[in-house]
Design brief:
This protein has about 290 residues and is an alpha/beta fold. It contains 13 helices and 6 strands. The chain starts with 8 loop residues before the first helix and ends with a helix.
């Protein structure tokens, strides 16, 4: 029987992660965190990375990202949101060295204010799919149960944007939807459409890497982490895949577990399986 007065290493590491999350806005010293976990700084750093896929500092940055994004989305002014997240310099939010957001913080906070997003819903072989686009490109493509719930989800993602339904039989969005539907049906390769990626800098790195994968490719979450030059950030790469809101055009369905298992998928495991099977069949028929 284990001694409750001596928690396991896993329990200590997870307690450290909870502490970092609760104090993300404060300066945290590695030696202090290590002492709390009853480890030397070197062993704590190594064990923490092995367990979470990122260093304690990277983990704290991720917690600060979450605070920053939540504050900006709720309408808190950029400067105030930055300080509340523990970011004393604007370069930490959007700078050349370590940007936390993949876009200007003001744009993220506005939630689409001043933008008009055109959207179109189509019933595909995989169920209803709603696609929305800005002037830059597709910023939303999600499967759902019905058009009403998908429009509600779009409004949640872009609460300040003007949402405008597009004509189903003409215009660029109708052409894009037709091309994507043909790919879903297994008759055409995935279309190369412009996208408007919105997320953290890390997420955008992952999504851009996924867009380089050819149809039929299969990679692991470890491959993704290596592909973006962050070999230890496997869990963070998996989280970025899960946060993707542009189905198919950012092909997170092509990412599998290291043991070959399907792993997760935002729009359901069976759908992921079918997408992979159709891609394989299309590739073998060429």
């Amino acid at each position: 029987m284990s001694d409750p007065s001596h928690p396991s290493l896993t329990a200590r590491l997870e307690a450290s992660a909870r502490y970092i999350s609760a104090h993300a806005d404060e300066p945290l010293r590695l030696d202090t965190l290590a002492a709390q976990a009853a480890l030397s700084p070197w062993h704590f750093q190594r064990r923490f990375k092995a367990h979470f896929g990122v260093s304690p500092k990277q983990y704290q940055d991720g917690c600060r990202q979450q605070r920053l994004r939540a504050a900006l989305r709720s309408g808190v002014p950029v400067v105030e949101a930055r300080l509340d997240a523990g970011l004393s310099s604007a370069d930490h939010v959007y700078g050349a060295a370590t940007p936390l957001l993949g876009m200007p913080a003001g744009r993220y906070r506005r939630g689409g204010a001043g933008e008009t997003l055109h959207y179109l819903c189509h019933t595909t072989i995989e169920g209803p799919l709603l696609m929305a686009a800005s002037e830059v490109g597709v910023c939303f493509a999600e499967f759902g149960t019905d058009e009403t719930s998908l429009i509600t989800q779009l409004a949640h993602e872009f609460p300040q944007a003007t949402l405008q339904p597009a004509a189903p039989d003409r215009g660029a969005l109708a052409q894009w939807m037709a091309a994507l539907n043909a790919h879903l049906s297994g008759t055409r390769p995935a279309p190369d459409l412009p996208v408007d990626l919105r997320g953290t800098a890390f997420q955008i790195k992952v999504w851009r890497f996924l867009r380089t994968l050819p149809s039929g490719a299969r990679v692991t979450y470890t491959d993704v982490a290596h592909g973006i030059g962050e070999s230890r950030a496997v869990r963070a790469a998996a989280s970025a895949c899960g946060a993707n809101r542009i189905a198919l055009l950012v092909p997170c369905h092509r990412v599998l577990r290291g043991d070959g298992g399907l792993g997760g998928y935002r729009w359901g495991m069976e759908r992921k399986r079918r997408l992979l099977e159709r891609e394989a069949a299309l590739l073998s028929a060429q």
